[in-house]
Amino acid sequence: MGLGAWVLVAAVVAALALGAWRASTNGVFRGTHPVGRVAGDAAPVSTSSTDGVSLLAGTSYDAQRGERATLLQFSSAFCAPCRATRRTLAEVADEVPGVTHVEIDAEHHLELVRALGVLRTPTTLVLDGDGRELVRATGAPRRAQVLSALAGGL
Amino acid sequence: MSTVITARPTPVGIDPRGPRVTATLTSVVLAVVLLTPTGLAAALLAMQAVIFGWGAWRGVQHTPYAAVFRAVVRPRLAAPLELEDPRPPRFAQALGLGFSAVGLAGFVLGSSTVGLVATGLALVAALLNAVFGLCLGCELYLILRRAAAR
I want to staple A140 with a disulfide (CB 3.0 to 4.6 A). Which of A70, A81, A132, B10 is the partner? Predict the structure, then answer.
């Protein structure tokens, strides 16, 4: 077998492995990622002293947090599954009292993206009533996955 | 409550199955590149690079592969459930152009190993799109933006 044939086999195996791995982790909510809040001079707006726990403290999004939980979605223009995620999360937020859906354009909030360790879109963070991160998922989560993530955190 | 922050107006959507078919045809061409002698491989990869370039410049819906999709595949399918933003697949075409340009340079400058490996990387991305509907270039986009703005 020539080098080209080996490269072909390797490419097929790599693609199948990557795709299967991605499919198995897609939308799965995992425990809290330890995050520093938007720090120092990277902060988009100065943080208020009264509200220190919220991940969104000091941003205009903080006012949109839910009483019980917030579904915080990071999206970008170059992201097809973001739309499905938006629909799912908006639906859940409409149905579950005290829960809101906040969508942030990752490209325009790179400081926040770095501070929260967001690597790809869509990434969904579930925040508690005080704006602390409970769990997060990358990829488009299914409705049942969102509901059970909320049930675990509320 | 749902808050949507849209930065730019979204261009007219495209049938999401078009890019899947394009990725499938691209995968076949790239696989053939890997299995043919260097001269023919270089010519085929050059053709694919031109198509990638066209897709990156005009949009994936304007490539010859998309014409095949419209003429042969779409008439046999039901209407799409939803349309897709054409910008992500267009960005992916640009990445494909990058890989195939490197590969082509390898073949032309006498390093068929570079040519084959670069073609193989492009094939991984094309297969992920064709088989799983996963756009690798789109996934890398945010990481690239994060790094660029640092």
Answer: A81
